[in-house]
Design goal:
Strand order of the largest sheet: 1-2
Order of helices and strands: HEEHHH
Number of helices: 4
Shape: elongated
Helix content: 55-70%
Largest sheet: 2 strands, antiparallel
Distance between the termini: 127 Å
Radius of gyration: 57 Å
Length: about 190
Amino acid sequence: MGVAHTPGPGRPMPLPAKTRRWLARRMFWRLTGILVIVAAAGWLIRVPRVVWANGNVISEEYAEIRPAVAGAVKTIHAHSGDHVRRGDLLVQLDNAEALATMEEARRQMHKAEAELARREAEVAEQKRRRAEDMAVVDLRLQNALSRLARTRELLARGLVAGSALEDEQLKVDLIQAEFNSLRQQDMSVFDK
């Protein structure tokens, strides 16, 4: 005879293969039947697709649009609920005030440019006059120095008095002081 296997103490005996197959088929057909019943019920029972209700709808996306500058609205190109893309013109503001402000700024700029040109001409004239004054004082100084040298020669020969030499030396000193004063004038203001 063959060997009989026992499951051990406290364990039930396993079902034969034929019985297990029959239980699996039975379970399959039960689940299939339940599925068919649920599908048929869904087909036969009418469910309304529209539900009427009162309430408020709040969008998930919200954008508050404000212009970068204040002004009166001239034209509205997009209205509430319209689909817009980045860069689309939504509102056009009246630019008459901005144009007037820009024109006033332009006039002030031209006025400032004219004032700058006038002052540059003034500075150029002052520089020219200073250069002329320096040249004149330089000539006077050279003349006074040569007269002083001649007066010294004449004094050495005894042809003029000593007071004439003092007068010529005073003239040289005065012209030298005038020359130094002109040279030390601050002209850096004109270079800015």
